[in-house]
Q: What sequence folds into this?
């Protein structure tokens, strides 16, 4: 009997608090009594190239930032490929800069045209001083040197394209070398290292598992009739261990309201993203969540939330 009275008093206290909150925030305060924390992001980091593991830089429990080195494969062959590709690119660029043949062909054309002009002038002043055969030969020389210019320019253009191709091959070799270092794709905590030093890995094989823990998702269900009290972008407060002295409050934002209503219980799935900078929250934990559609949460409410709300989570 005493327990029943106690529970009744608790319910009255919570109801009174929610009523005060509703007035203070200018709108209905929605409480979701049961939410579950889930991961927003996780990654089973794979190897991208085959190779032998040379060094593992992390262990379970380590905090990593995006881009941090996790595992390094043997790079000896990839480094040689980069050096070879760089030399080929350097040679190709030198060839692309070499326009000697073009300049020589142009100079030859100038000489051939001058010889032909002198022969024509001589014929004009002294008929039959130059035979028709000689004139034909000189004209052919001019045409040939003109074509030689085109050929030399074509060779130079091909050399420039070859240099560009070798540059691409050099970039590909550098990327292959970079792929020998497996880096963290996200910020998070290393929870599993699948491989050991000296092991051979194939592309796609998982090497390290990382969980993002600095921000988690609180998932719950709301009656369809209460959706107006849960607009996207609303401030939320996650209550962990509500009703206990060790209760804690965490701030977040409502980011998703499902467009589907469950026909069995007339509920809608919603979730909020909650900051977890000190890693106090863990995926799988349960709690309650208050949605405040009117705007930012009250500082006074945040300070007293852990002790004020003692309705047990369902």
A:
């Amino acid at each position: 009997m005493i327990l029943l009275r106690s529970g009744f008093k608790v319910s009255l206290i919570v109801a009174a608090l929610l009523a005060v909150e509703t007035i203070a925030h200018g709108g209905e305060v929605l409480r979701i009594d049961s939410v579950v924390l889930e991961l927003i992001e996780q990654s089973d980091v794979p190897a991208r190239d085959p190779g032998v593991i040379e060094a593992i830089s992390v262990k379970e429990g380590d905090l990593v930032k995006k881009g941090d080195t996790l595992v390094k494969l043997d790079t000896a062959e990839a480094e040689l490929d980069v050096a070879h590709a760089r030399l080929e690119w350097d040679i190709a660029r030198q060839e692309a800069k070499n326009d000697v043949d073009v300049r020589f062909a142009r100079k030859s054309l100038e000489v051939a045209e001058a010889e032909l002009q002198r022969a024509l002038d001589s014929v004009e002043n002294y008929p039959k001083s130059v035979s028709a055969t000689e004139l034909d030969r000189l004209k052919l020389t001019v045409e040939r040197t003109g074509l030689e210019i085109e050929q030399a320019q074509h060779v130079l253009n091909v050399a420039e394209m070859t240099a560009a191709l070798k540059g691409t091959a050099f970039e590909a070799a550098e990327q292959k070398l970079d792929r020998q270092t497996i880096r963290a794709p996200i910020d998070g905590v290393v929870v599993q290292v699948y491989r050991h030093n000296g092991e051979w890995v194939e592309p796609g094989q998982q090497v390290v598992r990382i969980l993002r823990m600095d921000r988690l998702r609180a998932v719950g269900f709301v009656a369809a009739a209460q959706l107006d009290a849960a607009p996207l972008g609303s401030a939320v407060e996650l209550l962990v261990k509500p009703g206990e002295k060790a209760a804690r409050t965490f701030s977040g934002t409502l980011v998703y309201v499902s467009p589907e209503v469950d026909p069995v219980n007339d509920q809608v799935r919603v979730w909020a993203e909650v900051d977890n900078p000190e890693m106090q929250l863990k995926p799988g934990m349960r709690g309650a969540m208050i949605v405040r559609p009117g705007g930012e949460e009250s500082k006074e409410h945040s300070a007293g939330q852990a002790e004020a709300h003692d309705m047990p989570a369902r």
Helices lie at 2-25, 76-97, 100-125, 132-179, 299-308. The radius of gyration is 39 Å. The chain has three domains: 2-40+213-308, 43-74+181-211, 76-179. The first strand starts at residue 30 and ends at 39.
